[in-house]
Design brief:
With 253 residues, this protein is mostly helical. The protein is 70% helix and 0% strand. Helix 6 (84-102) packs antiparallel against helix 7 (107-128), helix 6 (84-102) runs antiparallel to helix 10 (202-234) and helix 7 (107-128) crosses helix 8 (136-145).
Amino acid sequence: MGVKVGSSLPPAALAEVRALARRAERANGPLMRAINGFGGQIEAWVARLPKSVRRSVDDTAEGLLTRLYKGAGTAGRFLPKQGGDMGHKLAAAVSGAAGGSAGMASAAVELPATVIVMFSAMQRIAAEAGFDPNSDAVRLTCIDIFGSGGPGTADDGVNTGFVGSRLTLNGTTLHALISRVVPAFSTMLTKTLAAKAVPILGAAAGAGINYAFASYYTDVARVRFGLQRLVETHGEAAVTDAYEAARAGRLAA
Protein backbone atom coordinates (compact mmCIF):
# COMPACT_ATOMS: atom_id res chain seq x y z
CA MET A 1 0.00 0.00 0.00
CA GLY A 2 1.47 3.36 -1.04
CA VAL A 3 1.99 6.16 1.42
CA LYS A 4 0.03 9.33 0.89
CA VAL A 5 2.49 11.28 -1.22
CA GLY A 6 1.38 14.00 -3.62
CA SER A 7 -1.72 14.88 -1.57
CA SER A 8 -1.25 18.58 -2.43
CA LEU A 9 -2.55 17.77 -5.90
CA PRO A 10 -6.28 17.31 -6.56
CA PRO A 11 -7.49 13.77 -7.31
CA ALA A 12 -7.75 14.34 -11.07
CA ALA A 13 -4.16 15.57 -11.25
CA LEU A 14 -2.93 12.65 -9.13
CA ALA A 15 -4.69 10.22 -11.46
CA GLU A 16 -3.02 11.85 -14.45
CA VAL A 17 0.40 11.66 -12.79
CA ARG A 18 -0.11 7.96 -12.14
CA ALA A 19 -1.14 7.41 -15.77
CA LEU A 20 1.93 9.27 -17.02
CA ALA A 21 4.18 7.24 -14.73
CA ARG A 22 2.68 4.03 -16.11
CA ARG A 23 3.25 5.26 -19.65
CA ALA A 24 6.89 5.98 -18.80
CA GLU A 25 7.27 2.41 -17.53
CA ARG A 26 5.73 1.03 -20.72
CA ALA A 27 7.91 3.11 -23.05
CA ASN A 28 10.40 0.28 -23.45
CA GLY A 29 7.84 -2.21 -24.74
CA PRO A 30 8.24 -5.77 -26.04
CA LEU A 31 9.28 -4.74 -29.55
CA MET A 32 11.99 -2.42 -28.28
CA ARG A 33 13.22 -5.05 -25.84
CA ALA A 34 13.45 -7.52 -28.70
CA ILE A 35 15.46 -5.04 -30.75
CA ASN A 36 17.77 -4.41 -27.82
CA GLY A 37 18.24 -8.16 -27.57
CA PHE A 38 20.32 -7.85 -30.71
CA GLY A 39 22.39 -5.10 -29.13
CA GLY A 40 25.61 -7.11 -29.20
CA GLN A 41 25.26 -7.83 -32.89
CA ILE A 42 24.51 -4.19 -33.63
CA GLU A 43 27.48 -3.02 -31.57
CA ALA A 44 29.73 -5.48 -33.41
CA TRP A 45 28.43 -4.17 -36.73
CA VAL A 46 29.05 -0.58 -35.65
CA ALA A 47 32.56 -1.45 -34.42
CA ARG A 48 33.45 -2.64 -37.92
CA LEU A 49 32.45 0.67 -39.47
CA PRO A 50 35.34 2.90 -40.53
CA LYS A 51 35.84 5.94 -38.31
CA SER A 52 35.00 8.15 -41.25
CA VAL A 53 31.56 6.53 -41.50
CA ARG A 54 30.90 6.98 -37.79
CA ARG A 55 31.93 10.62 -38.03
CA SER A 56 29.61 10.96 -41.01
CA VAL A 57 26.71 9.60 -38.94
CA ASP A 58 27.44 12.13 -36.19
CA ASP A 59 27.61 14.95 -38.74
CA THR A 60 24.35 13.75 -40.27
CA ALA A 61 22.73 13.64 -36.84
CA GLU A 62 23.83 17.18 -36.02
CA GLY A 63 22.62 18.47 -39.37
CA LEU A 64 19.26 16.71 -39.03
CA LEU A 65 18.63 18.12 -35.57
CA THR A 66 19.50 21.64 -36.69
CA ARG A 67 17.20 21.41 -39.71
CA LEU A 68 14.42 19.96 -37.59
CA TYR A 69 14.62 22.89 -35.20
CA LYS A 70 14.73 25.54 -37.90
CA GLY A 71 12.14 23.93 -40.17
CA ALA A 72 9.78 22.60 -37.52
CA GLY A 73 6.97 24.92 -38.55
CA THR A 74 6.61 23.39 -42.01
CA ALA A 75 7.30 19.69 -41.49
CA GLY A 76 3.89 18.84 -40.08
CA ARG A 77 2.06 19.98 -43.20
CA PHE A 78 3.25 16.92 -45.10
CA LEU A 79 2.51 14.33 -42.41
CA PRO A 80 -0.59 12.41 -41.21
CA LYS A 81 -3.41 14.63 -39.96
CA GLN A 82 -5.52 11.69 -38.77
CA GLY A 83 -4.81 8.64 -36.68
CA GLY A 84 -3.06 10.27 -33.73
CA ASP A 85 0.07 8.54 -32.45
CA MET A 86 -0.70 5.44 -34.50
CA GLY A 87 -0.74 7.44 -37.71
CA HIS A 88 2.77 8.71 -37.06
CA LYS A 89 4.02 5.30 -35.96
CA LEU A 90 2.69 3.70 -39.14
CA ALA A 91 4.18 6.49 -41.27
CA ALA A 92 7.57 5.84 -39.66
CA ALA A 93 7.16 2.10 -40.24
CA VAL A 94 6.27 2.59 -43.91
CA SER A 95 9.28 4.85 -44.34
CA GLY A 96 11.48 2.24 -42.67
CA ALA A 97 10.11 -0.56 -44.83
CA ALA A 98 10.72 1.40 -48.01
CA GLY A 99 14.22 2.29 -46.88
CA GLY A 100 14.96 -1.25 -45.73
CA SER A 101 13.95 -2.76 -49.05
CA ALA A 102 16.42 -0.49 -50.81
CA GLY A 103 19.17 -1.19 -48.30
CA MET A 104 21.88 1.21 -47.18
CA ALA A 105 21.67 3.23 -50.37
CA SER A 106 18.34 4.69 -49.25
CA ALA A 107 19.57 6.01 -45.90
CA ALA A 108 20.20 9.57 -47.07
CA VAL A 109 16.53 9.90 -48.01
CA GLU A 110 14.76 7.59 -45.58
CA LEU A 111 16.43 8.62 -42.32
CA PRO A 112 15.52 12.33 -42.57
CA ALA A 113 11.95 11.41 -43.56
CA THR A 114 11.61 9.10 -40.57
CA VAL A 115 13.01 11.64 -38.13
CA ILE A 116 10.66 14.32 -39.47
CA VAL A 117 7.73 11.99 -38.76
CA MET A 118 8.93 11.47 -35.17
CA PHE A 119 9.54 15.19 -34.58
CA SER A 120 6.14 16.09 -36.02
CA ALA A 121 4.49 13.57 -33.71
CA MET A 122 6.17 15.24 -30.70
CA GLN A 123 4.96 18.67 -31.86
CA ARG A 124 1.40 17.39 -32.26
CA ILE A 125 1.50 15.94 -28.75
CA ALA A 126 2.73 19.29 -27.41
CA ALA A 127 -0.18 21.03 -29.16
CA GLU A 128 -2.65 18.56 -27.62
CA ALA A 129 -1.20 19.43 -24.21
CA GLY A 130 -1.93 23.10 -24.85
CA PHE A 131 1.48 24.34 -25.99
CA ASP A 132 2.40 26.18 -29.18
CA PRO A 133 4.09 23.45 -31.26
CA ASN A 134 6.24 25.99 -33.10
CA SER A 135 7.45 27.82 -30.00
CA ASP A 136 11.12 27.86 -29.11
CA ALA A 137 10.46 25.94 -25.87
CA VAL A 138 8.55 23.12 -27.58
CA ARG A 139 11.06 22.75 -30.41
CA LEU A 140 13.93 22.61 -27.93
CA THR A 141 12.07 20.04 -25.84
CA CYS A 142 11.46 17.90 -28.93
CA ILE A 143 15.16 18.03 -29.76
CA ASP A 144 16.00 17.17 -26.16
CA ILE A 145 13.73 14.10 -26.21
CA PHE A 146 15.99 12.57 -28.85
CA GLY A 147 18.88 12.71 -26.37
CA SER A 148 17.43 12.47 -22.87
CA GLY A 149 17.58 8.72 -22.57
CA GLY A 150 16.82 6.16 -25.19
CA PRO A 151 15.20 2.79 -25.69
CA GLY A 152 16.92 0.16 -23.60
CA THR A 153 18.91 2.63 -21.52
CA ALA A 154 18.77 3.21 -17.79
CA ASP A 155 17.69 6.82 -18.34
CA ASP A 156 14.21 6.59 -19.82
CA GLY A 157 14.11 10.24 -20.87
CA VAL A 158 11.28 11.07 -18.48
CA ASN A 159 13.10 11.73 -15.23
CA THR A 160 12.03 14.76 -13.22
CA GLY A 161 15.05 16.95 -13.84
CA PHE A 162 13.39 18.61 -16.82
CA VAL A 163 9.89 19.00 -15.42
CA GLY A 164 9.87 22.70 -14.64
CA SER A 165 12.73 23.73 -16.87
CA ARG A 166 12.45 26.25 -19.68
CA LEU A 167 15.41 26.66 -21.99
CA THR A 168 16.16 30.21 -23.11
CA LEU A 169 16.78 30.32 -26.83
CA ASN A 170 20.04 31.71 -28.08
CA GLY A 171 22.72 30.44 -30.41
CA THR A 172 24.81 28.96 -27.63
CA THR A 173 21.90 27.14 -26.01
CA LEU A 174 20.76 25.54 -29.25
CA HIS A 175 24.30 24.52 -30.22
CA ALA A 176 25.02 23.16 -26.74
CA LEU A 177 21.76 21.21 -26.66
CA ILE A 178 22.35 19.64 -30.07
CA SER A 179 25.91 18.74 -29.11
CA ARG A 180 24.61 16.94 -26.02
CA VAL A 181 21.85 15.15 -27.92
CA VAL A 182 23.98 13.99 -30.86
CA PRO A 183 25.53 10.87 -29.21
CA ALA A 184 22.16 9.30 -28.28
CA PHE A 185 20.57 10.43 -31.54
CA SER A 186 23.46 9.01 -33.56
CA THR A 187 23.00 5.68 -31.76
CA MET A 188 19.37 5.58 -32.87
CA LEU A 189 20.35 6.38 -36.47
CA THR A 190 23.09 3.75 -36.40
CA LYS A 191 20.66 1.08 -35.18
CA THR A 192 18.37 1.81 -38.11
CA LEU A 193 21.35 1.57 -40.46
CA ALA A 194 22.33 -1.75 -38.90
CA ALA A 195 18.82 -3.10 -39.44
CA LYS A 196 18.99 -2.18 -43.12
CA ALA A 197 22.33 -3.93 -43.49
CA VAL A 198 20.69 -7.34 -43.02
CA PRO A 199 20.05 -8.88 -46.46
CA ILE A 200 16.42 -9.77 -47.28
CA LEU A 201 15.28 -8.84 -43.77
CA GLY A 202 15.99 -5.17 -44.43
CA ALA A 203 12.38 -4.12 -45.15
CA ALA A 204 10.90 -5.95 -42.16
CA ALA A 205 13.71 -4.83 -39.87
CA GLY A 206 13.49 -1.25 -41.11
CA ALA A 207 9.73 -1.13 -40.51
CA GLY A 208 9.99 -2.75 -37.08
CA ILE A 209 12.78 -0.62 -35.70
CA ASN A 210 11.22 2.60 -37.00
CA TYR A 211 7.88 1.67 -35.43
CA ALA A 212 9.60 0.86 -32.14
CA PHE A 213 11.55 4.11 -32.00
CA ALA A 214 8.49 6.15 -33.01
CA SER A 215 6.50 4.45 -30.25
CA TYR A 216 9.20 5.17 -27.70
CA TYR A 217 9.61 8.85 -28.57
CA THR A 218 5.86 9.51 -28.70
CA ASP A 219 5.47 7.92 -25.27
CA VAL A 220 8.27 10.07 -23.86
CA ALA A 221 6.72 13.17 -25.43
CA ARG A 222 3.33 12.32 -23.90
CA VAL A 223 4.92 12.09 -20.47
CA ARG A 224 7.07 15.19 -20.75
CA PHE A 225 4.46 17.55 -22.16
CA GLY A 226 1.78 16.08 -19.90
CA LEU A 227 3.91 16.78 -16.83
CA GLN A 228 4.79 20.26 -18.07
CA ARG A 229 1.10 21.09 -18.44
CA LEU A 230 0.46 19.91 -14.88
CA VAL A 231 3.39 22.02 -13.66
CA GLU A 232 1.88 25.15 -15.17
CA THR A 233 -1.34 24.52 -13.23
CA HIS A 234 -0.14 23.03 -9.96
CA GLY A 235 3.50 24.05 -9.60
CA GLU A 236 6.78 22.23 -10.11
CA ALA A 237 7.34 20.97 -6.58
CA ALA A 238 3.97 19.25 -6.18
CA VAL A 239 4.08 17.61 -9.62
CA THR A 240 7.71 16.51 -9.26
CA ASP A 241 7.08 14.96 -5.84
CA ALA A 242 3.98 13.13 -7.07
CA TYR A 243 5.68 11.85 -10.21
CA GLU A 244 8.74 10.58 -8.33
CA ALA A 245 6.44 8.87 -5.84
CA ALA A 246 4.40 7.28 -8.63
CA ARG A 247 7.51 5.93 -10.35
CA ALA A 248 8.66 4.49 -7.01
CA GLY A 249 5.24 2.98 -6.26
CA ARG A 250 4.69 5.28 -3.29
CA LEU A 251 1.78 7.37 -4.62
CA ALA A 252 -1.42 6.47 -2.83
CA ALA A 253 -4.46 5.74 -4.97
